[in-house]
């Protein structure tokens, strides 16, 4: 649609140009800048704002004069003194490139298609003066001047064809770039989840395994020395771990920086670079027999890559032109650098909260990979140590917690300080609302807890019971069993070190 619109403008503006006065300098009287010649990039600025448009007009005039200077310099360097098909194409390309450069870099507005065409026609028309002047100073200047004027219409036909061909190529590039941008953005969104999960688990030591994360949390709980922090850990370990894993992940991704970049920015940049480079290689590798058969090139390009193919109906006006595939590929590759920058801008300022809203599944995947089975022992609350959440074997744990943490009582009606491996726990009632007053049916429950009196509580849990005995008793309103003196002399440092054994 844009292509057809520009072709219509081209012919319309050419008819108007027949009434243009011939000027000595291109910039002596430039085309008038109307409201529909500029497109404001910022939505809150409206062209109805006279002051705003006045400022934009001044910038547009300045930029147009700069374009005129580039054209005149090109003509001077190449000593262009008469109409030449090759030079005509080069001048059109030069003007379009300069307009595109400004449209990309301009902060406030960009030139519309109408103004772009108007500018090109204006330049084409006024080149006549220079050619006439050159021929006037040569022998047979009258005949040559007449020849120049007679060839003006022929020149415009070539000018028109050249512009249409360049516009067709640019239109095809534009459609391709939009398709690639959307494809890479969607691919990045999907693959980044896996990439971030893998990177976080690899670089955050405590997330290497369930044992590591539990050990890290127990170390932190000792350091904080707060019984209230232990309570949610015992009663809903899965939820507790999820919060901690999210915290560890956010710190790694957004607070730890390397060379002034967050780890998230580093991961993002690496993944974008990887995906864009792969797509660039695909552009380079796609070759067709007909070096000007764009339709065949696009069809082959889309084979074997995960993106929605451009419908040929979108590009049907373009296929009637012979477009140089090599030139087309080079321009696509240049534009893809801009795609890379645009993708970085989409994510470069994202913070932990925004990341959580968009990528909650990242935390869920890390948690699932790190924790595995989240079933807790019905007596002490420790997690099943198996890494597969769907394991077929009975649940098991390497180390069980002291039974008192879940309010379990012994025969003397005091809180037990033994672990689940003790023979005394064979008929302990489950202290759980869903199984109140029921005895622990070990033979039916899906836990493998071998009865072995030699399996003692670790120094960590002995320190815990000794340190928080009053808080445990207060929580359940029951006295705790007698605590050996040897437990009471265990230091915090001894407790932490025991986690490594």
Can you offer a commentary on this structure?
This protein is an all-alpha fold and 501 residues long. The chain folds into 3 domains: 2-138, no CATH class; 184-370, no CATH class; 372-501, no CATH class. It contains 18 helices and 4 strands. It has helices at 2-17, 50-77, 85-105, 113-136, 141-203, 210-224, 227-235, 237-255, 263-285, 294-301, 312-315, 325-347, 352-358, 360-371, 459-467, 469-476, 485-488, 492-498, and strands at residues 38-40, 109-111, 257-258, 261-262. The strands form 2 sheets. A two-stranded antiparallel sheet has the order 1-2. Strand 3 (257-258) and strand 4 (261-262) form a beta hairpin. The longest helix is centred in the middle third of the chain and has 63 residues, at 141-203. The chain is elongated and about 115 Å long. The protein starts with a helix and ends with a helix. Mean pLDDT is 76; it is low at 43-48, 140-149 and 430-444. This is Interferon-induced very large GTPase 1.
How many strands, what sense, and barrel or not for the largest sheet? 2 strands, antiparallel
Global structural class = mainly alpha
Number of domains: 3
DSSP helical segment count: 18
Radius of gyration: 38 Å
The tally of beta strands, per DSSP, is 4
Q: Bin the helical content.
A: 55-70%
- From the N-terminal CA to the C-terminal CA, the straight-line distance is 72 Å
**Shape verdict:** elongated
Mean pLDDT: 76
Order of helices and strands: HEHHEHHHHHEEHHHHHHHHHH
What are the segments in which pLDDT stays under 50 over at least 5 consecutive residues?
A: 43-48, 140-149, 430-444
Strand ordering within the main sheet: 1-2
Quote the beta fraction.
under 5%
Protein name: Interferon-induced very large GTPase 1
InterPro entries: VLIG_GTPase
């Amino acid at each position: 649609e844009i292509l057809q619109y520009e072709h219509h403008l081209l012919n319309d503006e050419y008819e108007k140009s027949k009434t243009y006065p011939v000027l000595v300098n291109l910039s002596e009287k430039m085309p008038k800048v109307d409201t529909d010649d500029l497109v404001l990039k910022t939505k809150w600025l409206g062209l109805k704002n006279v002051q705003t448009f006045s400022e934009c007009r001044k910038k547009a005039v300045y930029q147009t004069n700069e374009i005129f200077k580039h054209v005149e310099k090109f003509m001077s360097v190449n000593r262009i003194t008469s109409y030449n098909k090759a030079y005509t194409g080069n001048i059109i390309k030069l003007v379009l490139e300069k307009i595109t450069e400004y449209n990309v870099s301009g902060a406030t507005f960009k030139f519309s298609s109408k103004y772009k065409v108007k500018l090109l026609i204006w330049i084409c028309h006024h080149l006549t003066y220079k050619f006439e002047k050159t021929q006037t100073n040569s022998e047979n200047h009258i005949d040559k001047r007449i020849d120049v004027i007679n060839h003006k219409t022929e020149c415009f036909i070539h000018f028109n064809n050249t512009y249409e061909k360049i516009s067709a190529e640019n239109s095809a590039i534009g459609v391709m770039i939009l398709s690639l941008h959307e494809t890479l953005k969607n691919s990045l969104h999907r693959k980044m989840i896996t990439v971030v999960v893998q990177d976080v688990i690899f670089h955050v030591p405590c997330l290497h395994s369930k044992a590591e994360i539990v050990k890290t949390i127990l170390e932190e709980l000792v350091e904080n020395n707060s019984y209230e922090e232990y309570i949610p850990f015992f009663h809903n370990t899965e939820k507790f771990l999820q919060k901690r894993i999210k915290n560890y992940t956010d710190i790694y991704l957004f607070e730890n920086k390397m060379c002034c970049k967050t780890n998230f920015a580093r991961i993002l940049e690496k993944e974008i670079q990887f995906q864009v480079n792969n797509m660039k290689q695909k552009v380079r590798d796609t070759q067709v027999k007909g070096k000007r058969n764009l339709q065949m090139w696009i069809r082959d390009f889309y084979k074997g890559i995960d993106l929605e193919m451009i419908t040929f109906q979108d590009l049907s006006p373009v296929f009637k032109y012979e477009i140089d595939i090599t030139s087309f590929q080079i321009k696509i590759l240049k534009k893809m650098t801009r795609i890379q920058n645009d993708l970085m801008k989409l994510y470069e300022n994202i913070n932990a909260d925004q990341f959580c809203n968009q990528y909650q599944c990242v935390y869920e995947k890390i948690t699932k990979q790190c924790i595995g089975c989240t079933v807790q022992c019905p007596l002490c609350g420790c997690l099943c140590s198996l890494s597969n959440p769907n394991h077929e074997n009975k649940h098991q744990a390497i180390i069980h917690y002291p039974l008192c943490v879940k309010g379990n009582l012994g025969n003397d009606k005091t809180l037990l300080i033994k672990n689940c491996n003790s023979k005394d726990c064979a008929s302990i009632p489950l202290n759980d609302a869903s199984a109140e007053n029921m005895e622990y049916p070990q033979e039916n429950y899906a836990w493998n807890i071998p009865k072995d009196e030699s399996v003692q509580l670790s120094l960590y849990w002995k320190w815990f019971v000794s340190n928080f005995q009053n808080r445990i008793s207060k929580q359940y309103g029951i006295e705790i069993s007698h605590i050996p003196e040897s437990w009471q002399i265990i230091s915090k440092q001894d407790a932490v070190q025991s986690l490594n054994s």
